[in-house]
Structure prediction request, 266 residues.
Amino acid sequence: MVVAVLAALIMVPVLGSSGAGESNRPAAAKEPAVSPKTTASASAPKAAGPPPQQITDAVPGEAEVISEGPTAGRKVALTFDDGTCAACVAKILDVLEQTGAAATFFPNGTYGASWEPHAKRIRALVASGQLTLGNHTFSHGVSTQIGSAAFGTDLQRNEDWIQKSFKLSGRPWFRPPYGDYDSGTVSAAGERGYRKVIMWSGTVADSDVRSEAYILNAIQYWAKPGRIILMHANYPTTAEVLPRILKLLERKKLTPVTIAELLKDA
Prediction:
């Protein structure tokens, strides 16, 4: 079994761990809020041809596991999982709309109450090329523990929820809960048209509560060309600090893009 490095284990030495170690770090300097539509090259151009992620029959195929994109173009993908916090989902959407920044969501249908009220907003952002929507399974179970058959059923359940809620398909983008997968789950994902298994090459480790300084230090460390950054729509701090994250990326001359944009030439 190929086991992905979990977010809690890939911490930067200067970040420390939650608790006392974190409080010993100097607080990051406050950044000005991002002005509407001022983030450099943040918004992706509208795609030509068919609408992105339109609902079509699944195309089975061999799935590939991806943790990083090309370094050309100085692009970085901010990805948000789960959605346990309804106010956080709303705030993240507000920031994306206000700034034109691009991102990727991997929602779970079990947290549908956080996502469904924003279906029209999400659909509009996907249509404009500013947002990619992927599948994170419906129940957020550990894929390798429930078995490939049960996993495939849960993956399809979330695809059905995505289609019903947003009039879109999550294919071909899939992120395994907890970053846990094996050959059986990857094969089951490919059979259902999820041929891009998206891992990550940087994390803010916000599956636990983190301070703004912690998150900003993690972005400062991990954000490099081609990186896929793992984040969550689970705690208010991540949503609140997002404008400062975008300013930090701008200073690093990095452009936030969707996972579709990051990997389009890969």
Notes: Strands lie at 64-66, 75-82, 103-107, 131-133, 173-174, 196-198, 202-203, 228-232, 255-257. Residues 1-36, 38-47 have pLDDT under 50 and may be disordered. The chain has one domain: 59-262. The CA atoms of residues 85 and 234 lie 5 Å apart.
